[in-house]
């Protein structure tokens, strides 16, 4: 019988048993039959609950515990030796399912172990659902003295029971999600409830897949939204935690479209698949603000847990059908790869190495040439990776564009390096996808001596090394070092703090004056973000801005900076007489990838009342040089609003100036490295004055950054540089300090 048929039978057998003992007995019998085992034992919480082929009283509990710990692979059962294998069961009642088989060919294959683990996962889900329902029932019984509360819990129990029944009947996910949103909306007394899930081909994007109380046309528009731009729902997924906003109208993470629809209060909690956040369940009110009390939070989590159970159950069934081989490339799937890793580590007398190979430019090819071309690229990459391996090695496809390689029999961490080099070299060659396409790869290498690491640890180490390769420029390999794990843990902690900082309003702005070098008049300010962490103190931008860009959190942070800066400068200009000042705001490449950016800029100008020509958006040279076609389109749309554009850090590392003609740039900001030596180094002075003359020839304004003493000021002014900023004039100032500088006689 095929593995998928065996799993389907197992699913049906377990789902038809309404009680724990019956499910235990059915699961053990079905597993023994499917794997042709002589003996099968199910232990829950260290106690034997069901057996086949062996009386419960004869079960060697201690020996089975040794098997479950991976320390034994054979046992004497019923008077003769048996090969044994096992699969663990997690959840509220952890346990282990052990199978034994006697005879000369008794050993279990990797495919059979994968099948057994799939069965254990199905049993875990069924037992978890039974445990959840029993808990809800006990909870209602314990509170029968509170009639109103009991009635609410009883209604919740009835709704959850119906959802659980649909899960057991394998009702399509879309119908289950519709029931979840309707039930959640009814019981919480809210006006809107939605389910959003991550896109399979790009986990950085999310789409609404079900909703109650939200127009169908709005639901259809909410597709493939970057998580950082998805407001509370996106934060719930990114932070893997419940997020509440009781006054949405003043929230810095408000989604413009929902704010325009007058959303008042919103709460979201993550939906999980096998413990990993893959979506969110969100509720909201339009008529009035609402305080999300503990009861509402618990109820939302209960519905989210059932949505999680539904999606885990559906995707587990789907994954079981594809767990052995990847249907596109023919490589091993994740489950089979992990099983072979475990076997290699358990039997190794020499070291084992794992490589994680992540394609660097796959998304660009997929987006520009289409999904069929992307699939062809993955097949071609898989063939090239396989060609670099020995007969006993294993290649696998772990996710969309991520591959893995298992190399047993390695002497040390240096031995797998030539394999990584061969893979990189082969991937450099063009792929024929109708037209030539090029990709590179970032490779992480992890090595384990015998008995040193388990499979999951080794895979994590390889993944950390791969991420390090990406950070160091991509198209390279890195070998795992323990410092990588420590740095990763610190980064995880900082990322969690960063997500909370957005909700808790922990950011503030500093304003550095921009001065006319001839008259000394302040003509503008540059807005610079600072993070006032409650325990770390002030966190330097260089410590959190790269992380914000990497995680996408720069999108809500950048929008807050833009709105706050426009609002503050508009208020200062309303108090000034004479020429109003400008405000310069730095723009990240991640922000520029957002299609809604021109609308966000327009909204910030409109809500603040700041004239468009008083706003300057600063872009880095690298952003312009490495631009996509959509970049120029968005900048043109922003320019059409009347906003001015500046190139920041001009002259650092790029010799081509062609982008000055292609992009609608108004201002050149001369990098501090030129200004530092403008007095003492003739070459630096010549280059700096040359940039100034280039700006004048192209009718562009020039701003010199980092002016620190009078000699630099005189040299730049003599060279006809128009504007400047730096500590010679003022450091970045708080709002109150700049108030005093702009209005020295004004007590306000």
UniProtKB/TrEMBL annotation:
Annotated GGDEF domain residues: 350-482
InterPro entries in the cross-refs: Biofilm_reg_signaling (IPR052155), EAL_dom (IPR001633), EAL_sf (IPR035919), GAF (IPR003018), GAF-like_dom_sf (IPR029016), GGDEF_dom (IPR000160), Nucleotide_cyclase (IPR029787), Rev_trsase/Diguanyl_cyclase (IPR043128)
Domain of life: Bacteria
Pfam families: EAL, GAF_2, GGDEF
Residues in EAL domain copies: 491-746
Database matches in PANTHER family: BIOFILM ARCHITECTURE MAINTENANCE PROTEIN MBAA, DIGUANYLATE CYCLASE DGCP
Protein name stated in the entry: Diguanylate cyclase
The organism of origin for this protein: Paractinoplanes rishiriensis
Species classification: Bacteria, Bacillati, Actinomycetota, Actinomycetes, Micromonosporales
